[in-house]
Automatic annotation (TrEMBL):
Broad class of where this protein is predominantly found: other
Matches recorded under InterPro entries: 3-OHacyl-CoA_DH_NAD-bd, 3HC_DH_C, 6-PGluconate_DH-like_C_sf, ClpP/crotonase-like_dom_sf, Enoyl-CoA_hyd/isom_CS, Enoyl-CoA_hydra/iso, NAD(P)-bd_dom_sf
High-level lineage: Bacteria, Pseudomonadati, Pseudomonadota, Alphaproteobacteria, Rhodobacterales
Name listed for the protein in its UniProt record: 3-hydroxyacyl-CoA dehydrogenase
UniProt pathway annotation: Lipid metabolism; fatty acid beta-oxidation
GO biological process: fatty acid beta-oxidation
Compartments where located: Peroxisome
């Protein structure tokens, strides 16, 4: 027997207990153990087999770390068929998360019981594959095609009560999985229940699979796995036999397994778990945080306060005046009403948060007892310095003093206090109670426990936290500024903002850069351009004025109803604003530029290559620790298509030499903007990839 599956005999029942922490992934040892266990139970004359998982869960899926490596026998589909074919009565007892290959093992068992807190699901499409061990063939047979399509194409986790209604499990009972499983198996034996193989059930009735395929493809914005999975479910209905349906599933599974999308999505899965693991934080204890202060109750401050309140942290919110404080409370109440509507909190929790957990204040003394304070005031260095000098005067020793600045120098802000070791940047993304990304900006003197406290807070607020160093814009906004500039250059040279937005949404971005500017407010970019011009632009840098003209006319994007697009009340999205084309034409004429045409492919290539080049500089300078940190920032803060894995994973998949060649070629037309990142040159010279750097850091 393998150690990953323990064998025990209780009367007529052979018990197979998986023991492969942390999530009982179905790696090769577990698969061998299950196969050996079934064979032994049959050889020893047991009448039933119980399969369950030790520790926190039943099998949470195939072992994702094995993907892309040579497969080792027994394969999961064959194992599932073998379990189902057993003449013994096979029962699975589920707790924790029975996902992917885990649910497929359960579906090959003849009966399934689960504890009420268990969740089941087939989330494979989120990893760029489809259920490849019979899930697309067995689930429709027990739950019907409609429910199976929903579960398989969304990958959602289904609670035990719903799974019971759908017929995915047979019984829900509180208790220890081993105990309830044993009792259920005995009950089935005693009642003479038949062996019940899902694969032997009749094929389910078909639906209009072409229509479902098209709808799912459209919803996936270029992601293929959910749509391909529809075709596998179709085979469950239409293939002449169960075995032929399984063969079709296998064929489609292998297609997806070979795809770049699978590589991108699995990179994203591990990258988002790796960002919080920093060697310098090993063994460093975060400082306790029981209550926090937020300074400034605008959209950002109110969003941060909401996120903290939803995580159960009491908040003291400081504003300049009573009126401003009450307006901030209204904003928070609006955010909480949204959370209530979406079922994230109950009415009782909503009321308790507003009445007991939120304190309003107008004087700094109110912050004397908080453990951590986040400043979200106007983006102006002098204002920030005054705030931090005041915090230094009133906050208790050891309190963490955080700024939510999105580009200002955190070292300079820290220098306004006598305790720079306690100062850190916590850069939330708007709306802060919704967006998952948190950049944890570590300044020169920030103490390790303060960094650990930032990560602990991020975890508590359910954020994906990424360490960043200090520079203008940190990781995300610095890279954004470069690819946004690249888009501006393409506009000057002949592409329209609308063509660029369309090319990039076709590539998979949630929105194009010009639609994003309209959403954020064109005044933000305008202020940045004015600041940079005031600081003095490099004479080699290209500049443009067409967007300034929109702002001068009072058009700030969605909030004023007009920007690059025109927004009509009550309608989703906008239509292109034709005036923009005239402004661009005037700008080109003033600069003596003769416009040329761009293909969509060239737009995407230039935009992506500029992003990769800046990202390589960010990693090379140590602003991001690893390429994967950049990838996670772009995935969670900037609408980057997850199935492409992030810009540096995309770069690896494209090939770094070709990217460097393009930068060198384009530098002939603009050698200021297209300066190759030294790290990119080094990797190409050494024949290495960004992923190699990720591995070096493990
Ligand atoms: C499949 O089954 C295909 C079948 C067809 C075959 C033919 N493999 O997320 P956490 C690790 S596809 C390997 O922090 P949580 C994870 O990396 C699979 N490792 O915990 C982490 O390691 P670290 C379908 C895995 O409690 C540790 O376990 N299944 C796997 O927040 C803890 O994970 C899925 O897609 C795995 N399958 O959430 C489920 N799963 O400590 C994927 C986890 O070294 N997993 N690890 O960083 C999840 O969704 C979540 O991990 C969870 C637990 C809900 C199971």
């Amino acid at each position: 027997m393998s150690e990953a599956v323990e064998y025990e005999r209780i009367g007529d029942i052979a018990v197979l207990a998986a023991n492969n922490p942390p999530v009982n992934a179905l790696g090769v040892d577990v698969r061998r153990g299950l196969l050996a266990g079934i064979e032994r139970a049959e050889a020893e004359g047991a009448k039933a087999v119980l399969i369950y998982g030790k520790g926190r869960t039943y099998f949470a899926g195939a072992d994702i770390r094995e993907f892309g490596k040579p497969p080792q026998e027994p394969w999961l589909p064959g194992l599932c068929d073998r379990i189902e074919a057993s003449p013994l009565l096979v029962v699975s007892a589920l707790h924790g998360t029975a996902l992917g290959g885990g649910l497929e093992v359960a579906l090959s068992s003849h009966y399934r019981i689960a504890v009420p807190s268990a969740k089941v699901g087939l989330p494979e499409v989120n990893l760029g594959i489809l259920p490849g061990a019979g899930g697309t063939q067995r689930l429709p047979r027990v739950a019907g095609v409609e429910a199976a399509l929903d579960m398989i194409t969304t990958g959602r986790h289904v609670r035990a009560d719903e799974a019971l209604k759908l017929g995915v499990i047979d019984k829900v009972q509180d208790g220890d999985p081993r105990e309830i499983g044993l009792a259920y198996a005995q009950e089935l034996l005693d009642s003479g229940a038949p062996r019940r193989a899902v694969g032997e059930m009749p094929a389910p009735d078909p639906v209009d699979f072409d229509a479902v395929y098209e709808a799912v493809l459209k919803k996936g914005r270029g992601q293929l796995s959910p749509a391909v999975a529809v075709r596998a479910v179709q085979a469950a209905c239409e293939a002449p036999s169960f075995a032929e349906g399984m063969a079709r599933e296998r064929e489609l599974f292998m297609q997806l397994m070979e795809s770049d999308q699978r590589k991108g999505l699995i990179h994203a899965f591990f990258a988002e778990r790796a960002v919080g693991k920093l060697p310098e934080l090993k063994g460093v204890e975060p400082r306790p945080v029981h209550q926090i202060g937020v300074i400034g109750g605008g959209t950002m401050g109110a969003g941060i306060a909401t996120a903290a309140l939803l995580a159960g942290l009491p908040v003291t919110l400081l504003e300049m005046t009573q009126e401003a404080a009450h307006a901030a409370k209204d904003r928070i109440a609006g955010n909480l009403a949204g959370a209530l509507k979406r079922g994230k909190i109950s009415q009782q929790q909503h009321d308790a948060i507003l009445s007991d957990q939120l304190q309003l204040a107008t004087g700094y003394d109110a912050l004397s007892a908080v453990d951590l304070v986040i400043e979200a005031v106007f983006e102006d260095m002098d204002v920030k310095k005054q705030v931090f000098a005041q915090l230094d005067a009133v906050c208790k020793p050891g309190a963490v003093l955080a700024t939510n600045t999105s580009y200002l120098d955190v070292n300079e802000i820290a220098a306004a206090t006598k305790r720079p070791q306690d100062v850190i940047g916590l850069h939330f993304f708007s709306p802060a109670h919704v967006m998952k990304l948190l950049e944890i900006v570590v300044a020169d003197k920030t103490a390790p426990e303060v960094v650990a406290t930032g990560f602990a807070l991020g975890h508590r607020l359910k954020k994906v936290s990424v360490r960043a160093g200090v520079c203008d814009g940190f990781i995300g906004n610095r890279i954004l500024s470069t690819y946004r500039t690249c888009a501006d250059h393409m506009v000057l040279d002949g592409a329209s903002p609308f063509q660029i937005d369309k090319a990039l949404t076709d590539f998979g971005f949630a929105m194009g850069p010009f639609a994003v500017s309209d959403l954020a407010g064109l005044d933000i970019g305008w202020a940045v351009r004015k600041r940079k011009r005031a600081e003095g632009l490099d004479p080699r840098a290209r500049d443009s004025s067409y967007a300034d003209k929109l702002c001068e006319a009072g058009h700030f994007g969605q909030k004023t109803g007009k920007g690059f697009y025109v927004y009509e009340k009550g309608k989703r999205g906008g239509t292109p604003n034709p005036e923009v084309l005239d402004l661009i034409a005037a700008d080109r004429a003033a600069q003596g530029i003769t416009p040329r045409t761009f293909t969509d492919d060239e737009i995407v290539r230039r935009y992506m290559v500029s992003m990769v080049n800046e990202a390589a500089k960010v990693v090379g300078e140590g602003i991001a620790r690893r390429p994967l940190d950049v990838d996670v920032v772009l995935l969670y803060g900037y609408g980057f298509p997850r199935y492409r894995g992030g810009p540096l994973k995309w770069a690896d998949l494209q090939g770094l030499p070709g990217i460097l060649d393009d930068i060198r070629a384009w530098s002939a037309e603009d050698d200021y903007f297209w300066q190759p990142a030294p790290l990119l040159e080094k990797l190409v010279a050494e024949g290495r990839s960004f992923d190699d750097l990720n591995k070096d850091a493990e």
